Prior knowledge:
Layout: H1 2-23, H2 32-53, H3 57-61, E1 64-67, H4 75-90, H5 94-97, H6 108-112, E2 116-119
Helix pairs in contact: 1-2, 2-4
Amino acid sequence: MLYDGLLLLAVWMLATFPVIAIIGHEVTVGNPLFRIYLVAIALAYLHLGWNMQGATLGMRSWRIRLEHGPAPWTLVRSARRLLAGTLGLTVFGLGYLSMLWRHDRRSWSDRFSDSSLVDTRPQQSTTQQQPTDQ
């Protein structure tokens, strides 16, 4: 989440340049249209990562992939995942802490978007080879 948050911040900075160029001055703090614009940019960033590659750039660095079963990944599912993830963070992280006591280890965003995160790191074997005597 931290990696994607930093990447999203950079995307927001780049997305702000055209807005400033069009209106000719800085955006006022709390502008509702600008906030909607930033949420749309965040949704587009996340949806493109989840839909096209199964993972955002931050998720790929940790070798985590989004699994969503046979149903196609839609913009609505991305919006639901973003909404549930945001809500899960704003309630003292409870949406993510709930993974610790659930048997399926799914967060609120996983359950609300009918998806799950999968670790794609290569599995290490549990058996060690014994040295051979010569």
